[in-house]
Write a structure and sequence with these properties.
Blueprint lengths: L26 H9 L2 H14 L7 E5 L5 H9 L4 E6 L2 H13 L6 E5 L13 E7 L8 H11 E12 L5 H10 L5 H13 L3 H8 L9 E4 L3 E5 L3
Parallel strand pairs: 1-2, 1-4, 2-3, 4-5
Antiparallel strand pairs: 5-7, 6-7
Helix pairs in contact: 2-3
Bound molecules: S-adenosylmethionine.
Length: about 230
């Protein structure tokens, strides 16, 4: 048997785009589940601000902000940032609006209901930065979204898209199984379905090679995550 032969991966199981807009779970409960991920959000924000060097007064687009905790943390880290959240789910925008009001950052964050595959509402080179956290595996037409990102991002703009990966190794699988003892059944279910819907680094690189982002980004990985970002 050839030991170097790559193991066969389970096929991707898409999750669909809008994660709510239905009575699946009350919005308050959903918000609570998201809030448990605050440490993860803080790490992402730190990476964007410090490692990718997000400048004062940046005009930032967040794709799929959900309850908007990332945008909220960004603005709290630097009140000169202005954020626009492009979100496909009406329910999520409701939740996000409540959160930005509770956190007193309404003046810095606004939302647009729409699908990131069509950003014709924005002019070319509108944004200093585009970020997205845990949303990519939901996009039904990622190639179109990547091309739209390339169009609306300034030439020297910052890009940071973080998502899970489907090709997790044995170490990550063990951590996942152990984590299930400490998180709710719902969280563990969401985590598993998002892993199954996500891509591998190779699949993403192949996809990006077909878009105008080709040669403009780098892909970083760790045991659970993939980050597509501007070269640092
Ligand atoms: C798993 S949630 C992540 C929310 C948030 N970014 C976070 O990390 O907490 C994915 C979000 O992406 C949104 N979404 C999925 N596909 C989208 C698309 N094509 N355009 C805009 N938003 C989208 C969903 O409605 C949902 O709010």
């Amino acid at each position: 048997m050839n030991k170097n032969k790559p193991k066969k991966l389970p096929p991707r199981i898409p999750e669909g785009e809008s994660i709510q807009d239905g009575p699946e779970m009350g919005l308050d409960e959903l918000n609570k589940q998201f809030k448990k991920r605050m440490k993860e959000y803080e790490r992402f924000v730190k990476f964007v601000v410090k490692d990718l060097n997000l400048k004062d007064n940046s005009n930032v687009l967040e794709i799929g902000p959900g309850p908007s905790w990332i945008s909220i943390l960004l603005v709290k880290s630097n009140p000169s940032f202005k954020l626009v959240g492009l979100e496909i789910s009406n329910d999520m925008i409701k939740l996000a609006k409540k959160n930005i009001s509770d956190e007193n950052v309404e003046n810095n964050i606004s939302f647009i209901l729409g699908n990131a595959k069509d950003m014709s509402i924005f002019e070319d080179k509108s944004f200093d930065a585009i970020i997205s956290h845990d949303s990519l595996h939901h996009w039904e037409e990622p190639i179109q979204v990547f091309n739209e990102i390339a169009r609306v991002l300034k030439d020297d703009g910052i890009l940071c898209i973080r998502d899970g990966r489907r090709d997790i190794g044995l170490g990550a699988k063990i951590i996942f199984q152990l984590a299930r003892f400490f998180i709710s059944k719902k969280m563990s279910y969401f985590w598993k379905t998002s892993i199954m819907a996500s891509y591998t680094p190779v699949e993403l690189q192949e996809m990006i090679n077909l878009t105008r982002l080709k040669n403009k980004i780098e892909i970083k990985t760790d045991i659970f995550d993939i980050i597509i970002c501007s070269p640092s």
